[in-house]
Design a protein that fits this description.
This protein is α/β, with parallel strands linked by helices. It has two domains: 171 residues, 3-Layer(aba) Sandwich (Rossmann fold), CATH 3.40.50.1970; 177 residues, Dehydroquinate synthase-like - alpha domain (Dehydroquinate synthase-like, alpha domain). Helix content is 43%, strand content 18%. The strands form three sheets. The protein has a seven-stranded mixed beta sheet with strand order 1-2-9-6-5-3-4, sandwiched between helices. It starts with a strand and ends with a helix.
């Protein structure tokens, strides 16, 4: 049997990320540790993951908890105030107390939602994240950022609420559609660009990521763990994890979340590299490596849209400060920094590099 990998995320209350086949079975052990004292559990999931969620409910029930599954919509449609309010009503019906636990089972949208609901119910109850998509495993489920979307933009309402444990069961990737797996790789390659060159080497050797999936997940999780353990509240190093996300979130908003997050991030990474190059902070060869590798991975590197509209959305990005527009850029591979109020000519140059021809 493959040995599970364990990564500890430091912070005010450290927690463990368990990675490998069958990791979901660790839930039973958590009842004697991270969720000790819980008597009730609400398992949040989408209809398509009923079988996985059912196994989670059964495991918790066998451990003595009164566990119940709560179904939410797929994808970003789950991340609304209305869906959150419906879950609050269900937690009230279940009588979930502050000593109890919410378990998020699903992709990044579900873990974002479950974490937000846990953060706000009784001003905070414990949450265990069980991500089932590659995107959820390497990004959304780790770090404690939770949130829902509003008409103004993505994740603008939320809370910092770290999980007490994250169980990354790689067996759940077996049924993941190829396009969803590929989308998740965008967050993995991002970690390579900002911190871990070995990720870039692995993806250059196999752009599908299939020959080294577990290692890529572990490396991406370690990059995020190192950042959030030092900076939980996004005031310093953690902000570098947003590399490529300023444009990505604008694309998602303009497209009414019809674009996959990873696809938008892929375009955002190329844009950020071109912006860094235009500002004289990233070499031409390093910027080209972004485009070449992202394209080899089968991810989009261009986008057809109105830059004026995108720019207006970027102005209300979470990284903005007052009227200042901020981007994460690189001063070389593995050396992220912040670019504030870039010259308009640089922005136009970067946009021209990713603008899809008619």
């Amino acid at each position: 049997m493959t040995e599970l990998q364990r990564i500890t995320v430091a912070g005010p209350v450290p927690y463990e990320v368990v990675i490998g086949p069958g990791a979901t079975a660790e839930l039973a052990l958590l009842t004697g540790g991270a969720i000790a004292g819980a008597t009730r559990a609400a398992v949040v999931h989408t209809a398509s993951l009923a079988a996985v969620a059912g196994g989670v409910v059964e495991t918790l029930q066998q451990a003595g908890l009164a566990a119940e599954a709560l179904v939410v919509p797929d994808g970003e449609q789950a991340k609304t105030a209305g869906v959150a309010a419906g879950l609050w009503a269900e937690l009230g019906r279940l009588g979930l107390t502050r000593s109890d636990v919410v378990v998020g089972v699903g992709g990044g949208a579900v873990t974002d939602l479950a974490g937000f609901v846990a953060a706000t119910w009784l001003r905070g109850v414990r949450v265990v994240q069980v991500p089932t998509s590659l995107l959820g495993m390497v990004d959304a489920a780790v770090g404690g950022k939770t949130g829902i979307n509003t008409a103004a933009g993505k994740n603008l309402v939320g809370a910092f609420h770290p999980p007490v444990a994250v169980l990354i069961d790689t067996d759940t990737l077996d049924g993941l559609p190829e396009e969803e797996f590929r989308s998740g790789l965008a967050e993995v390659v991002k970690c390579g660009f900002i911190a871990d060159a070995a990720v870039l080497d692995l993806l250059t050797a196999d752009p599908t990521g299939r020959s080294s999936t577990t290692e890529l997940i572990a490396r991406a999780v370690q990059v995020k763990a190192d950042a959030v353990g030092e900076d939980l509240y996004d005031t310093g190093r953690r902000e570098f994890l947003n590399y490529g996300h300023t444009l990505a979130h604008a694309i998602e908003k303009v497209e009414d979340f019809g674009w996959r997050h990873g696809d938008a991030v892929a375009v955002g990474l190329v844009f950020a590299a071109e912006l860094g190059a235009a500002a004289g902070r990233l070499s031409r060869a390093e910027a080209d490596r972004h485009r070449d590798l992202v394209a080899a991975m089968g991810l989009p590197v261009t986008y057809a849209g109105d830059f004026a509209e995108l720019r207006a959305v970027m102005a209300v990005d979470k990284k903005s400060r007052g009227s200042s527009l901020r981007f994460v850029v690189l001063d070389g591979l593995g050396r992220p920094g912040i670019l504030t109020d870039p010259d308009e000519a640089w922005l136009r140059t970067a946009w021209a590099a990713v603008e899809q021809s008619a």
